[in-house]
């Protein structure tokens, strides 16, 4: 018996960051959107915990992914088993298309998928609130990977509240060869900015999502407080943003803590045109995605 769960990458269409808390985490006001780039996680009963990674997508370098107990999927599986007091183990296969350390919450997606897959494999019927709590213990972005769609994130990002989004938004994703560590970007943010500003989500941004109108009405609200810090650490990222604007994008944005960059497009065709032009300029690792899409969900059982 095995269960396969698909979980989406996320982008932060808005990421406001406050001053670091005593526990080292930063208070956030963010608007998450789940986009159409996915990892698939398959779980099977086993005598011992194990993880294997299949790097499916052209943008994934699997070399930085641990194959031992430090992999977030094994931490997720053990946490679920401990929560229910069950002495069971699983072999976990992760088929990755989300870039590693790319700021699209790939590891978080895998963790959320593992929770849902093992819950189903073992017929645990875990309450949603308990799944969200286990997810939050695994990482700040993990609860959103369960919920999907479009949602605000507060606290350290783990308090997720769905928002109405009637649009289909198209994005050009510009990948980068070299990952960027999330703590290092928050560290640079502390040095450069410190978080002494109003970082709240503007209600008008939520109106634009709810109205689902044209991309220009959302583009004006796109913002990421970590962008300057990521550009400071990796000046090459700014060139990708400039190139995307020169190729016709109305607005660009760092994805999460980077190094992936995003450009908003007015539709699928516009997105493919921008991606094609970026390829012509040497930015050949791009993808066209849309959001919002569903959170972690079962795609195969049996
Ligand atoms: C950049 C974002 O992806 C935006 O959604 C997230 O804030 C990062 O979420 P994540 O990778 O799930 O982060 P976690 O695994 O919870 O934390 C990793 C590290 O990121 C930093 N971190 C994370 C979240 C947060 N609100 N403040 C932080 O300072 C801390 O140094 C922490 O030790
Ligand atoms: N299943 C996993 N997939 C990817 N990385 C993992 C996994 N388990 C542990 N890791 C470790 O976590 C690090 C960050 O991985 P991840 O791909 O989640 O980053 P990210 O997408 O930038 O995250 P976020 O956007 O949430 O900050 C990797 O460099 C790797 O060492």
TrEMBL record:
ATP binds at residues 99-109. It holds the Pfam family GHMP_kinases_N. Residues 71-149 form the GHMP kinase N-terminal domain. The active site is at 10, 141. Gene3D superfamilies: 3.30.230.10, GHMP kinase, C-terminal domain. GO terms for biological process: isopentenyl diphosphate biosynthetic process, methylerythritol 4-phosphate pathway; terpenoid biosynthetic process. One of its GO terms (molecular function) is ATP binding. The keyword Kinase applies. Pathway: Isoprenoid biosynthesis; isopentenyl diphosphate biosynthesis via DXP pathway; isopentenyl diphosphate from 1-deoxy-D-xylulose 5-phosphate: step 3/6. Residues 222-278 form the GHMP kinase C-terminal domain. Signal peptide: none annotated. Its EC number is 2.7.1.148. Keywords: ATP-binding, Isoprene biosynthesis, Kinase, Nucleotide-binding, Transferase. It catalyses: 4-CDP-2-C-methyl-D-erythritol + ATP = 4-CDP-2-C-methyl-D-erythritol 2-phosphate + ADP + H(+). NCBIfam families: ispE (TIGR00154), PRK03188.1 (NF002870). Belongs to the GHMP kinase family. IspE subfamily. This is 4-diphosphocytidyl-2-C-methyl-D-erythritol kinase. The lineage of its organism: Bacteria, Bacillati, Actinomycetota, Actinomycetes, Propionibacteriales.
């Amino acid at each position: 018996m095995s269960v396969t769960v698909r979980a989406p990458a996320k982008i932060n269409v808005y990421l406001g960051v406050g001053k670091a808390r005593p526990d080292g985490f930063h208070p956030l006001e963010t608007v998450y959107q789940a986009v159409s780039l996915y990892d698939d996680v398959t779980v099977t009963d086993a005598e011992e915990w194990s993880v294997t990674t299949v790097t499916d997508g052209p943008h994934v370098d699997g070399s930085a992914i641990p194959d031992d107990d430090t992999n977030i999927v094994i931490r997720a599986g053990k946490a679920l088993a401990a929560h229910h007091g069950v002495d069971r183990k699983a072999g976990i296969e992760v088929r990755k298309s989300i870039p590693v350390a790319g700021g699209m919450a790939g590891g978080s997606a895998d963790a959320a998928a593992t929770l849902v897959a093992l819950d189903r494999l073992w017929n645990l019927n875990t309450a949603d609130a308990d799944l969200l709590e286990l997810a939050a213990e695994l990482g700040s972005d993990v609860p959103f990977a369960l919920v999907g769609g479009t949602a605000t994130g507060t606290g350290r990002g783990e308090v997720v509240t769905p928002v109405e989004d009637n649009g289909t938004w198209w994005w050009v994703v510009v990948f980068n060869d070299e990952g960027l560590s999330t703590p290092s970007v928050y560290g640079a943010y502390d040095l450069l900015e410190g978080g002494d500003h109003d970082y709240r989500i503007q209600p008008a941004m939520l109106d634009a999502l709810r109205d689902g109108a044209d991309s220009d009405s959302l583009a004006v609200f796109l913002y990421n407080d970590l962008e300057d810090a990521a550009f400071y650490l990796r000046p090459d990222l700014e060139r990708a943003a400039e190139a995307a604007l020169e190729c016709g994008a109305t607005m660009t944005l760092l994805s999460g803590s980077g190094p992936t960059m995003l450009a908003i497009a007015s539709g699928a065709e516009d997105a493919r045109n921008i991606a094609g032009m970026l390829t012509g300029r040497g930015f050949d690792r791009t993808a066209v995605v849309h959001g919002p899409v569903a959170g972690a969900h079962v795609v195969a059982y049996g």
